[in-house]
Amino acid sequence: MLFSYKAGYGKMWKTILGDTRPSYYRKHSIPKEKSIYVTLARLRIKGLVRKERSEWNITAKGKEYLKNKFIKTLPYHSTQSEKNKTAKNVIIIFDIPEEHKNKRNWLRVELKILGFVPIQKSVWLGPSILTEKFIKSLETISILEYCKFFRADELDII
Questions:
Q1: Which pLDDT score is estimated for 131?
Q2: Which of 8, 61, 119, 149 is positioned for an S-S bond with 123, CB 3.0–4.6 A?
Q3: 89 within 8 A of 129, measured Cβ to Cβ
Q4: What residue spans define the domains of the chain?
Q5: Tell me: domain 82-151, CATH 3.40.50.1000, correct?
């Protein structure tokens, strides 16, 4: 059988051993309806959706999850005026937890746009004037508490 079998290696394996191949070799065709049902069932188990009569609704926990997980509307701040870019006398230090990684990455991009330069990944030096809109944005997305602001003055010691 090994030498005269022409259907292919996979079919031969299945014929001899049954379908004992690892699952990533098997091809599954899950109907779209079943896929949706399985997804909704998982969301229901996590408490993110509930089924009332024949209607699926998002729960308060689901809304909070979406708010934290998919922050698509993070504010964008345009660059400040050129005169502010030349003065580098504010240090921003932040320690944002891993669970807010997307917010931390957003902050790094915004600081770069505002004319800041990184000293370390979470320590940035930049212009002294931060807009009120920027500070409000930090508060709105709940990361202001993780940020510390310091005024830096250059000393002429030599």
A1: 82
A2: 119
A3: no
A4: 1-70, 82-151
A5: no
Tokens of 78: 């345009």
pTM, two decimals, is 0.48
Helices (H), the chain: 9-17, 32-45, 60-69, 82-86, 101-113, 132-140
Q: Which amino acid is at 120?
A: Q
Handedness of CA 61, 63, 69, 71 (dihedral sign): negative
Count of CB atoms situated within 10 Å of the CB of 17: 9
- Position 64, amino acid: E
The beta strand positions in the chain, using DSSP E, are 49-52, 55-58, 90-94, 117-120, 123-126, 147-151
pLDDT tens digits along 87-120: 568 999 999 999 988 889 889 988 888 888 999 9
| β-bridge pairing 117-120 and 55-58 | unpaired
